[in-house]
Design brief:
about 210 residues; mainly beta; Jelly Rolls
């Protein structure tokens, strides 16, 4: 990697990144418009979620809750039967930081309300309360799913998110865990904990072996 500094405070050239060139492969983009959920199902509508790639990445962009759903979280769940059921047993950990707009409050801590312990419930990815009232309120996140086609190992996932919540706060949230199944995971569903997704996009990528 080549770095060129100017006056010790900027970088003018980067010739390589952490990912090898061409290793991040676009697969599918879903766009919400008052949607109850957005689902990626292997083999459906050009979605690939199988042994083709060892890691899959989901980019969730400008997720906005429909009117009347202030405080809802953005959640996901996994399926082993092509999306007929989204109920994989999961164990996870969650923590967050937040900072209020008027600088009257800050926090850094574990979040017991958004972790799971051998539960089939939806896993929160963006939590802290989406702002549905204001048109500029939204959340963004990324989620990694590792080796979902394995029939030997449990299915690890890891995600982080940022949002301006309805309080209003700047929230930064982190989750990690595993789907406790040795069956292939072949579908994932995203939705809100309450109400519909007013707008936003989710992009699915496959990450190649090095």
């Amino acid at each position: 990697m080549a770095l060129v500094k100017y006056n010790d405070n900027s970088i003018s050239a980067v010739t390589s990144t952490a990912l090898a060139e061409g290793s991040l492969v676009p697969i599918k983009t879903l766009t919400a418009s008052g949607s109850a959920s957005l689902s990626f199902v292997d083999g459906s509508n050009d979605v690939v979620l199988d042994s083709t790639y060892p890691i899959y990445k989901f980019e969730c962009i400008n997720i906005h809750a429909s009117s009347g759903n202030d405080g809802s979280n953005f959640v996901f769940n996994l399926s082993t039967d092509g999306g007929s059921n989204y109920n994989v047993t999961k164990t996870s950990s969650a923590f967050q930081t937040w900072h209020k707009e008027d600088d009257t409050g800050t926090s850094l801590g574990y979040n017991t309300g958004n972790d799971l312990a051998q539960s089939t419930a939806d896993q929160s990815l963006i939590f802290g309360g989406l702002d549905a009232t204001n048109s500029d309120g939204n959340g963004c996140a990324e989620l990694y799913l590792y080796n979902p086609s394995s029939t030997t190992f449990v299915k690890h996932f890891m995600g982080k998110a940022v949002l301006n919540s309805y309080h209003p706060y700047a929230w930064n949230t982190y989750i990690a865990g595993y789907g406790n199944t040795t069956n292939s995971v072949d579908a994932i569903r995203f939705q809100l904990s309450s109400g519909n997704i007013d707008s936003g996009k989710i992009k699915l990528y496959g990450i190649k072996d090095s």
